[in-house]
């Protein structure tokens, strides 16, 4: 692999990893607070992308402000993803809180299927794209290769800002400490006066906004079609399994590893593109069965 090809693969891998990390971050929060694998989270990614594309299409003829168009991505993600996330928790998952995990998984899968049909009803099956924002941000040339600033700088910067912001929230705010308390021991947190139900709803809202933000950031780079949410959620499961459940820093590292591995496969062995994330996951789990960043636990007999 020559240097230019390596550079292309690296930039593509980092930008894809950034998007993958955002949706994995939301899943990690939900797994930590509820212990639920939320399959419906993939639909929030898709809703974020479709909503951002609709908003950008409306703004493009009426505004020449690139910052305003960029801000619309965050608005779409916060409103659509946050609202749908809280609605899912309040109207559905709260009623299955202490039920069998398999039943919880089936319920989230059913919600995913319903939301997928809602997407088709609203936006149809025609590919949706909003590439004008990426074009407006200009390009940068590195070693003779031209990259869009949107992909090279903006998307990774947003992912890092989300990581830093969430770490600050969890460690230095009352709401964040309540989330951490519920993650560690829900019953004790409730006994101490923490409203676990409220924390759960806010967590779902935050996770939904993060997942939708990933979709909103994706739509200037790729066309959205029905089924894209399913592809991203399955890959996100590989990220979480590789990192270890509830590991935020681990999710960042695992997303980067999987994103780079997938990009390298695209440029060298295209037939391995689809399976590369899962090959990485299996390789890690063979050595670290609980994930890269999970602490080892003693087996009790």
Account of the protein in words:
- It is a multi-pass membrane protein.
- Pfam families: BPD_transp_2.
- The protein has 301 residues and is mainly α.
- Helices cover 72% and strands 3% of the residues.
- It has a single domain (3-287), classed as ABC transporter involved in vitamin B12 uptake, BtuC (Orthogonal Bundle), CATH 1.10.3470.
- The chain contains 12 helices and 2 strands; from the N terminus they run αααααββααααααα.
- Helix 1 crosses helix 10, helix 1 runs antiparallel to helix 11 (248-268) and helix 3 packs antiparallel against helix 9.
- The longest helix is centred in the first third of the chain and has 32 residues, at 3-34.
- The model has no long low-confidence stretch (mean pLDDT 87).
Topology of this protein?
Blueprint: H1 3-34, H2 41-59, H3 66-91, H4 101-123, H5 132-136, E1 139-142, E2 145-148, H6 149-172, H7 174-184, H8 186-191, H9 196-218, H10 228-243, H11 248-268, H12 276-287
Antiparallel strand pairs: 1-2
Helix pairs in contact: 1-6, 1-9, 1-10, 1-11, 2-3, 2-4, 2-9, 2-10, 3-9, 6-7, 7-9, 10-11, 10-12, 11-12
Summarize the structure.
This protein is an all-alpha fold and 301 residues long.
Keywords:
301 residues; mainly alpha; ABC transporter involved in vitamin B12 uptake, BtuC; two-stranded antiparallel sheet; 12 helices; 72% helix; globular; ABC_transp_permease; membrane; transmembrane; transmembrane transporter activity; transmembrane helix
């Amino acid at each position: 692999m020559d240097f230019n090809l390596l550079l292309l693969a690296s930039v593509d891998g980092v930008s894809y990893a950034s998007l993958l990390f955002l949706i994995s971050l939301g899943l990690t929060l939900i797994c930590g607070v509820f212990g639920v694998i939320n399959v419906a989270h993939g639909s929030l990614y898709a809703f974020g992308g479709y909503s951002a594309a609709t908003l950008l299409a409306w703004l493009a003829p009426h505004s020449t402000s690139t910052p305003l168009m960029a801000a619309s991505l965050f608005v779409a993600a916060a409103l659509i993803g946050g609202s749908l996330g809280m609605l899912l928790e309040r109207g559905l998952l709260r009623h299955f809180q202490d039920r069998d995990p398999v039943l919880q998984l089936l319920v989230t899968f059913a919600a995913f299927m319903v939301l997928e049909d809602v997407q088709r009803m609203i936006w149809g099956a025609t590919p949706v794209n909003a590439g004008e924002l990426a074009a407006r941000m200009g390009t940068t040339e590195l070693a003779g290769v031209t990259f869009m600033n949107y992909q090279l700088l903006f998307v990774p910067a947003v992912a890092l800002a989300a990581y830093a912001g969430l770490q600050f929230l969890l460690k230095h705010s009352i709401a964040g400490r309540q989330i951490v308390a519920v993650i560690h021991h829900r019953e004790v947190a409730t006994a101490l006066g923490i409203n676990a139900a409220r924390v759960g709803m806010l967590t779902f809202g935050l996770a939904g906004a993060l997942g939708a933000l990933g979709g909103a950031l994706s739509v200037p780079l790729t066309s959205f079609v029905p089924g894209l949410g399913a592809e991203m959620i399955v890959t996100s499961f590989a990220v979480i399994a590789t990192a270890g459940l509830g590991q935020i820093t681990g999710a960042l590292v695992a997303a980067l590893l999987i994103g780079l591995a997938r990009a390298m496969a695209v440029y060298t062995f295209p037939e391995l593109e689809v399976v590369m994330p899962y090959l990485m996951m299996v390789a890690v789990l063979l050595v670290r069965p609980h994930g890269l960043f999970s602490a080892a636990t003693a087996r009790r007999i």
